[in-house]
Amino acid sequence: MAMSKKKKSIIGIAFIIVALAYAVLTAGVVVYNYRTFGVQNDIVLVEGLESDIYIHSGFNQTGIIFIGHYFRTNELPYSLRVQIWDKEKKYSSINVNKITVTYSNGRISEKTMHWDRALTAYKLSHYSREDGSTYEDIKMLSDHIPDVVDEYTDCTVKIEGFLTTVSGEKILFSPDAVKFEYRERSGVSTYMEYIAGV
Fold first, then answer.
1. Contact at 8 Å (CB) between 94 and 114?
2. Torsion sign, CA atoms 68, 72, 75, 81
3. Are residues 174 and 46 in contact, defined by beta-carbon separation less than 8 angstroms?
4. Number of domains present in the structure of the chain
């Protein structure tokens, strides 16, 4: 028996209502696949200078709002982000000339380079209840050295080079290697659960 036009309309409207309710309550479905190396790690290039390094996997997302989303990290190789916070404004530039990556499977990758970057003026913000927002003039750097890590496994990263002071003095650095732990995370959830970290 053929379905009447009225019944088809009711079913269609009901479907739209259910779909809208689903979209509002969940904001859509999320499929995610992350391959990362944890968080940034402090590294002592020279005493008194705040600095850290981080294996940057990058991030991509596609999807349609309220329907579905796909989040993933980029493919290898990953870059190494270097950050420096020079509160004394003592240094003008950094030169990294060698990076050694030692993987947990025993493989050692040594890369020589001439990666030279200038530190630039930066206003570092602070907040307190008494003073509100205040700003400190410092010099800083945040930049990436490309194609450093090319395996999905735990590793250590050692960087070598020199810092140049504002007076032109070159100060060599060769700190201990920094350990990074490889992590994988994938799954399916609603968008609301995803942003809530469930």
1. no
2. positive
3. no
4. 1
